[in-house]
Amino acid sequence: MDALRRVRLSDHFWAWEFSCRGTRCSCHGATQVDDELVRLLEDFRGLVESPISVLSGFRCDGHNRTVSGHPRSFHRVGMAADLSSFALRRDLEGWAAKLGELIVERVGNERGNVIWYERQKFIHVDVGRRIAELVRNKEAMLEKLTKGSGEV
């Protein structure tokens, strides 16, 4: 972990921010992060003009199970992050929409997903294969899962 503290991925993000945070897994804080995700987050940070915290980046399989993550979660391959900040929390839906627009600009229409979690006050973003509409709330996501699509 000490070596990760010194690895800068971009102007505002460090490798350690994306490390697995599982306390009961055997990966010992492993890190995997997609370059496209870092570029996207750096561009988004420029729009927000305020620090952004990565609440969850890479998750090893053990940690992903512990947090009840989807078995095919993009967190497992370093292509997803859950974000929060004081600026984002003031207009979660608005910032999620802006992030969605940025995804279309940066990675196109075939990849990238944004989900905002109103109650928990964070935004999930990934640069994986497009799952559904660009921006959706948690209720719509849960409805899709209960219909058996299996994609999250």
Description:
The protein is an alpha+beta fold and 152 residues long. It has a single domain, classed as Muramoyl-pentapeptide Carboxypeptidase, domain 2. 33% of the residues lie in helices and 18% in strands. The chain has helices spanning 35-48, 61-66, 86-90, 92-107, 138-146, and strands at 53-56, 80-84, 111-117, 122-129, 135-137. The chain has a five-stranded mixed beta sheet. α1 packs across α4. The protein is globular. Mean pLDDT is 86; it is low at 133-138 and 148-152.
Task: Write the topology of this structure.
Layout: H1 35-48, E1 53-56, H2 61-66, E2 80-84, H3 86-90, H4 92-107, E3 111-117, E4 122-129, E5 135-137, H5 138-146
Parallel strand pairs: 3-5
Antiparallel strand pairs: 1-2, 2-4, 3-4
Number of domains: 1
**Mean model confidence by pLDDT:** 86
- One letter per element, helices H and strands E, the order comes to HEHEHHEEEH
**Main beta sheet: strand number and arrangement?**
5 strands, mixed
The CA-CA distance between the termini, in Å, is: 29 Å
Physical arrangement of strands within the biggest beta sheet: 1-2-4-3-5
What is the CATH C level class, in words? Alpha Beta
Helix count, per DSSP?
A: 5
| Shape-level CATH architecture | 2-Layer Sandwich
Number of strands: 5
Gyration radius (Cα, Å) is 15 Å
Query: Under CATH, the topology is which?
Result: Muramoyl-pentapeptide Carboxypeptidase, domain 2
**Structure classification:** alpha+beta
